[in-house]
Amino acid sequence: MLNRLRGRIASEFLPLLGLLVVMALAMGFGGLAGEMTEGETSTWDRAIQLALRHKDDLAVPIGPAFLKTAAIDLTALGSETILTLVTLIAVAFLLLRKRAHQAALLAVAVGGGAIVSGLLKNQFARPRPDIVPHLVDASSGSFPSGHAMNSAIVYLTIAVLVARGYEERSTRVFIVVLALLATLTIGATRVYLGVHWPSDMIAGWLVGCAWALAMGLVGLVLQKRRKIEPPAAAHGEAAPKPVRPTLH
Asked: What pTM did the predictor assign?
């Protein structure tokens, strides 16, 4: 009885908490965007960019030589090609596990996130940093960081939706933490390589995390309404298919 009561409280409280977090992330982005537009982020943006380069040669980033190569390799994980490939693999994985509804939601979530990303970059049209040489090619608008935002949208959305397919808490946490680490790493490389201001990176994380969490909440609601596959049963049993309520 106690476990059932706890489960009911959690099922009602967690969605509300998630919605509040989404709103907080959105407000954080709005506040940061306002400060960026007014030039309030310029001082610390420039300070961090310069701190990541050698004072006697701004074309050379700080750290050992292999760090530059690693950053270039890791930043590619946020490219459109890799993100599209990862999305297709995730959709195929869900279809293989007979989770067509989750696969459809994932495709819609990632596609919608990509549209939001493009709209925001066009809206702000911030120039790329020009105080240090770029170590990789970049041509689109700078705010918010497309790599930071799109990697958060894709990796975290995939992680949240795929994690919903497992009952084991440890499995869910592992999937989400792995995606979060990938997202943070990709965003950081953009600043290290000189193609984004730190505020661009933070803005991308805020929007991407908000979108991924919102899509996770949508998936949770759909599961409760039996419009999407429920979590897989423990010990590898197949999850039951979603059942649409019948009208009497």
From this structure: 0.81
- Distance, in Å, from the CA atom of 154 to the CA atom of 85, rounded to the nearest integer, reads 11
Q: For 70-79, 101-110, 157-166, 189-198, which range has the lowest pLDDT when averaged over its residues? A: 157-166
For 193, residues 6+ apart whose C-beta sits below 8 A from its C-beta are: 61, 71, 72, 75, 134, 135, 136
Neighbours of 166 (CB within 10 A): 17
Task: Compute the distance between CA of residue 152 and CA of residue 147 in angstroms, rounded to an integer.
Answer: 8
Sign of the Cα torsion 173, 156, 191, 66 reads positive
Residue 170 corresponds to which amino acid?
A: S
Helix, strand or coil, per DSSP, at residue 58: strand
Segment 7-60, tens digit of pLDDT: 555 566 777 888 899 999 999 999 999 999 988 899 999 999 999 999 888 989
What are the b/e assignments for 120-132, b being 16+ CB within 10 Å?
bbeebebebbeeb
List the one residue out of 185, 115, 200, 191 whose CA is nearest residue 153. Answer: 115
CB 217 within 8 A of CB 19: yes
Token pair 């537009």 is found at 37
Q: Exposure string (b/e) for 29-67, b if CB count within 10 Å is 16 or more?
A: beebbeebeeeebeeebeeebeebbeeeeeeebeeeeee
